[in-house]
Amino acid sequence: MMLAPYASDPYRSRGRRFAEIPAPTRTDFQRDRDRIVHSTAFRRLVYKTQVFLNHEGDLFRTRLTHSLEVAQLGRSIARSLRLNEDLVEGIALAHDLGHTPFGHAGQDELDACMAGHGGFEHNLQSLRVVDLLEERYPDYDGLNLCFEMREGILKHCSRANAERIDAQEPGGVARRFLDRTQPSLEAQLCNLADEIAYNAHDIDDGVRSGLITLEQLDAVPLFARYRDEALAAHPSLAADGARRRLLHETIRRMLSAQVYDVIDATGVAVGHAAPPTADAARQGSPLVRFGDAMRRESTALKRFLFQDLYRHPQVMATTGHARRVVRELFDAYRSAPGEMRASPNARAHASDGEGPMSPERVVADYVAGMTDRFATREHERLTGIRLFP
């Protein structure tokens, strides 16, 4: 497929932090994607969870299945927009590498533990994983990914952290947070594909768990419209025994509509802006977007999920246990660093490019890299308390 002039071209990449001879059969973006798939952090995603924790069932989404769904949606949209599919796929597969165990509860608690020590941002942690914490190559730490891949992985960044990163890497991946420009169109697309994916699969997982019902979703216009379409096309789905099929068909139609909406709205925005190059597409407002009506409906869906699923009493009870595990692990390792017995990085990385790492940052790196079940086992080993089955 011929790339659009505003797509990211691997042959015009801003390069790697450590120069390498190009691969004979793969572009740099394809090579990066392969490095991500083979990384230790990527394998751990299978036991890191989204909303429902690892012990709550085998059929709920994990960070790994979520990342695969984002990659699939992203590639589908990129193909229609003539963007670089390999870059989109790589960013999608890597965007959650820095996520803690226990989903956002773990992230929030680790950030609280790191108050006064630089805080914790999972997007920044994903960059630390690919830049520093992976140990696979003899000549450098990390995966030595291309600028464009690293930039897309750093989806959000506080100004303080952006200033710190830019001091180390002037004009690098954090510069856009200081001068208010945009990342590549491929990175913009991954941000939106991430949103589309988690909204859809949180509906599926929420209904499967019994915490939300199809009747509650009547109040969500985006879901209700495509449920009605599904019933009109397949009246048999109204039967009680067909509710699972009705849910899947509704979500399938909803996903398709969102994908087509992004393609159409982005096509209009790009046509109006007419960026002649990938760098020109970074100026101004984001060009990859929903149409206005779909944006309003997507926002309403997110509001429903926040109120009725993420703040459900059963989810909140589990969240409290998860935060306790992270907090007590952090305190235990800070008091007794030798307990981080399986952490090569905790021992080997005396510096992260700015000077010696603080003991707290070493602990945060270790805890953030844990899977749900390893964190649970370690907590029980160190405290004698079993909070999860």
Fold and architecture overview:
This protein is globular. The chain is built from 17 helices and no strands. The longest helix is centred in the middle third of the chain and has 31 residues. 44% of the residues are buried. The protein has 389 residues and is mainly α. Helix 3 packs antiparallel against helix 4 and helix 11 packs across helix 12.
Structural descriptors:
single chain; 389 residues; mainly alpha
- Residue fraction in strands: under 5%
Helix percent band: 55-70%
Taking the sheet with the most strands, its summary is:
none
Count of DSSP H/I helices: 17
Classification by helices and strands: mainly alpha
Rounded to an integer in angstroms, the radius of gyration calculated over CA atoms is 22 Å
Low-confidence stretches: none
Overall number of strands: 0
Q: Mean of residue pLDDT?
A: 92
H and E string:
HHHHHHHHHHHHHHHHH
- The quaternary structure here is single chain
How many angstroms separate the termini?
50 Å
Shape: globular
Give the topology, please.
Layout: H1 28-37, H2 40-44, H3 63-81, H4 85-94, H5 103-113, H6 122-133, H7 147-153, H8 159-168, H9 176-179, H10 185-209, H11 221-233, H12 243-273, H13 292-310, H14 313-335, H15 344-348, H16 359-368, H17 372-383
Tell me briefly what this model is.
The chain is mostly helical and 389 residues long.
